[in-house]
Amino acid sequence: MDGMRFTRRRLLQLTGAAGAVVTVQACGGSLGGGSSPETSVKVGLLVPQAGVYAPLGTDMRRAWDLWLESHDGKLGDYTVETVVADEGETPQTGVPAAQRLLQSDQCDVIVGIVNSATALGVRDIVHEAKKILIVANAGAEDITAKASSPYIWRSSFTNGQVAAGMGRHLAENGPKDGVFVIASDYAAGAEAIAGFTSAFEAGGGTIAGRADPPFGTTQDYQPFLSRIRNSGAKATFCFFAGAEAVSFVKQYRQFGLAPDVPLYGSGFLTEGGVLDAQGEAALGVHTSLHYTSELDSSHNKEFVQSYQDAYDAVPTVYSVQTWDAANVLDRALRGADGLDGDTLSTALGGLGPIDDSPRGTWSFENQTPKQKFYLRKVEKRGDRYVNAVVTETGAIGQPG
Amino acid sequence: MGSWFEANLVSVLNGGAIGCLLFILAIGLSLVFGMMNVLNLAHGAVFLAGAFIGWRIGGESPTWGTFALAVGAATLLGLLAGAVLSAMTEPLRNRSHLDQALLTLGIALVAAELLSMTFGNDVRATNAPPGLDGTVPVLGTDYPVYRLFLIAAGLLLAVTAWLVVSRTAAGAVIRATVADREMVSAIGIDDRKVKLAVFAVGSALAAVAGVLGGPVYGARPGLDSTVLILALVVVVIGGLGSVKGALIGALVIGQIESLGRALFAEAASFILFGALAVVLVLRPQGLFGRADMAGAPR
User: Fold this and answer.
1) Nearest to A255 among B142, B220, B259 (CB)
2) Residue in B25, B133, B150, B261 to test binding to A, most A beta-carbons within 10 Å
């Protein structure tokens, strides 16, 4: 019995010792491995890799990679480790992906998010984790208004802001008597119409009618096109994106409205891949946006050249928004002495004008860009369609 | 008032065009469901495959040659897809619709993913072939010629399908299979072959509808489920397993999507399913379906 007890105790001791060794080794591993946390920053790039927004995700990821490649893989003095996560189409995929980036991957910063519902859905977890989120597309007003957080910044636009650019332009340059407004019946469309209408009416314009085709289930716009024609409108302002932008612009031409009632819109109508699909039907469509690849500035030309060299593709507004997210993080990290949300938020708040962006100089106002808008017209150059610059507005901030 | 009347007549005409396209899409689904009692949720994926083929072969501006080639290629692919689907659903023949729905939905998801891997996630659009890509003045407003062509194509198919089903020996077998499958096999006709044939032709029509729909709907990820839902609504409203039902159902949906949305713009989102609900309440078997098909699985 004694021997037995001894054996058992001995066994326990051995087990304990072995456990201790494992623990020490584990600690040693974590202490010795990797670089010091002070010199590296972990960024979660949350962009759509599948679903209807996947083409935007590609543009965003390309710009992010291009920034790192041309800046020695660094933001400020920090070496960047990028973790890419799939935002998917809806908050059902986007929010859990953001959660994983913060909890399992322990990211210091999140960049990306195309869908506004996803951006609003991650608001609370980002806010509670006190980590910086730079929204590189989603345009809902609430992200930097009603649902704002000191940790959530935006490098893109707001829906109303883009439309206000066009409203202001039409009120100043016409046609200002009788513009028909039409937008997909969802939050972004409603914000665009509100932004356009208030800027347009403030400048003395009048609205001839309004239609809200159901979002996502409208393939044929003929009933709405008939209403536009019957309203006797002098012009149409619209907000559509993605597949709906293609259908609407093509059918607007097919039903013969394009020559009689010129089409104006928020720039997403003719930006990126949708313009290739619209092709000839888009010729002469006017849109407002905070970027076009055709901008005649040295910063833009340099950016377009390096982007084309790297990917054999023309950058889009989605690329530039992500490029600028990297740009503001780079500037903030240069001045900051920590990676926590409060330090970075203060640093972002003190940035001042961003003067080397491809889109032109812009600055943060209420954590979202105050920027000028370009009035663009679709033209054919060589064998491709481009958004040529017609004129530009002064700086416009988030409306309201 | 005159222009209001004219504008709505254009909507009626347009409803006919959309209805004819929906008919070409939905007739296969209706016959397969009505005759073979197989619920094929992969029907929309076949349509999308056809749409992508049309875009890949014809490009943005197809010629008549590439357009015909695309229709031919889509027909072949549709026949093949129908044969495969028929074979895959064969073991589930006597199981419930839920099992069939799960299987074909799975196939639809895999097919959609394969299409997105092959053709990318971008929105693709294609134009009508030369001669059909312009507009004609109709009732004082411009109307796309191509949509008139769709009406012609749909009506031609309807007449052909009606002649085949009601005037030929093969049609007699098809009608007999709808009425009583067991009796058809009892008199020595292999009803698996009938099913294979109907499945193949129905899927071929769906793929051709994809090519024909290209200039109207384009080709993009997600279009498969959109058209599947439209086709299902057509089948439910029209009733199962009859050419007439599919045609009337498609024309009704075309009018609802076109004239209905023009007249009741505020209710545009729910007018389609509102009509569906009304039909389900008043005539659960569909406008032209037989009452004994409406109830529990046979």
Assistant:
1) B142
2) B261
**Residue B298: inside a domain:** no
Architecture of domain A37-157+296-366: 3-Layer(aba) Sandwich (3.40)
Residue B170 tokens read as 């093969």
Partner residue opposite B121 with nearest CB, options A55, A217, A220? A55
Contact by Cβ (8 Å): A101, A107? yes
pLDDT tens for residues A144-201? 998 899 999 999 999 999 999 999 999 998 788 899 999 998 888 999 999 999 999 9
User: Is residue A363 within 8 Å of residue A268, measured between CB atoms?
Assistant: no
Choose the closest CB to B218 out of A55, A230, A243.
Answer: A243
Asked if pLDDT for residue A9 goes beyond 70, the answer is no
Residue range(s) defining the domain that contains residue B39: 2-293
Segments of chain A assigned to CATH 3.40.50.2300: 37-157+296-366, 160-289+375-396
- Residue B290: what pLDDT? 62
DSSP single-letter state for residue A269 = G
Q: How far is CA A281 from CA A250, A277, B212, B241, in A?
A: 5, 9, 19, 40
Contact A279 B60 (CB under 8 A): yes
Q: For residue B190, what is the domain's CATH number?
A: 1.10.3470
Chosen from B9, B147, B269 to mutate, greatest number of chain A CBs within 10 A: B269
Does A189 contact chain B (CB < 8 Å)? Answer: no
3-state secondary structure of A339: coil
The domain made up of A160-289+375-396 has a fold known as Rossmann fold (3.40.50)
Give A-chain residues touching B3 at CB under 8 angstroms. 230
- The answer to whether residue A399 neighbours chain B at the CB level (below 8 Å) is no
Distance from CA of B180 to the nearest CA of A (A): 38
A276-312 tens-digit pLDDT: 889 889 999 999 999 999 999 999 999 999 999 999 9
Q: Is the ipTM of this structure higher than 0.85?
A: no
Query: What are residue A82's DSSP bridge partners?
Result: A43
Closest CA to B229 of B29, B80, B83: B29
